[in-house]
Amino acid sequence: MHHFFRDAVLAAAMACAAPAFAAPVTLHAGQELVWNVDLTNMLPGAPPFSSVRIGNDTSNTTATGSWEFFAEHDMQGAMFDSVQALNLSSLLLWEPAARDGIFSVRVAVTSGSVDLDLWASGDLNGVGSAVVRWEPEATEVPEPTTLSLACLGLLTAAAMRRRALRCRRHPRNT
Fold this sequence. Notes:
Elements: H1 2-16, E1 25-28, E2 32-38, E3 51-56, E4 64-70, E5 79-85, E6 90-93, H2 96-99, E7 102-111, E8 113-116, E9 118-123, E10 129-133, H3 144-169
Antiparallel strand pairs: 1-8, 2-7, 3-6, 3-9, 4-5, 4-7, 9-10
Helix pairs in contact: 1-3
């Protein structure tokens, strides 16, 4: 019985484990990605930055599409800089809207597909640099097998408890 509870706890822990993600992520035609960039807590004394650079570390450029930049998170605020072609590897942003370290980037793919491994950096007059990498948001959906194991463990635990209670109420005569 001791092993049963250990196995049930392990199954429940696996069902509740946070999902893992790997970069880069692939976008296909018709898909878009919005990244809310925040460089403000990366260095003491920041912002404003003297310049901000945004880039993509992958070399897959078979897609067509665009980069768009907005002064606030969630594509709010004024759009700044011109719309850029999707195949750039990095772009230096001088606009005051980016130099405060808080802005959003929209990547839209119109045809083909592109691998994205995004990063942003802010420079403090050559004294220091703040760098952040894009990480996908977690979606809490467990795998079907893990969920099945967790349910099976809970059902077995309930059956064992019921059996133990029944045996206490009606002990066998020996």
